[in-house]
Amino acid sequence: MTDAPTTSAPTERSFRHTIRRDAGSKVSLDVEVDAERLTRQADRVFERHNQKAKIPGFRPGKAPRAMYERSYGTEHLWAEAAEDLVDQTYREIVELEDLSPLDDPKVDLTQLEPGKPMKWNATVTVRPDVTLGDYAAHGATIEPTPPSERRPHGRHRRDGRRQDAASLRAQRARRSRPRDVDRRPR
Length: 186
What we know:
The protein has a domain at 6-125: Trigger factor ribosome-binding domain (Alpha-Beta Plaits), CATH 3.30.70.1050. The longest helix is centred in the middle third of the chain and has 23 residues, at 75-97. With 186 residues, the protein is an alpha+beta fold. The model has no long low-confidence stretch (mean pLDDT 83). The two termini are 49 Å apart. It is built from four helices and five strands.
């Protein structure tokens, strides 16, 4: 693992990110999402909420944004838009950088203001890079042993396990029969 940060310049994406690999299979992300994308996402969140909003004088979904914001405020729209964008950009970065996260990221939103780029940081544990040594270099060899009567294979071994796991139960209503064996695990 290297400590050198990797920066990705935007080609057709609307965010920029820096990735830094830390010790212990940790990866730190610094992400900046364009203000336009944040505004578009806030508009989508408004449309979702406006469909269920009950504002006097308006049918659900028909209230103008100014009336909605006067009744409900704007902070929850921006917070939900930021949450959606963090999720979207995180997934894009994981795919782009070919990361294998083992758990959910610990996200810290550092800047969220209308008209400005949204910035967030995250730390996530990823699958460690493991390099195996030459396992055949130690020189030990294992000779195969031929099957014998003392080591049953296949059906004989399975039948032996069945007998070991079986138990006898007393039957009260009738006399016992030769096939009265309980084969359920104990």
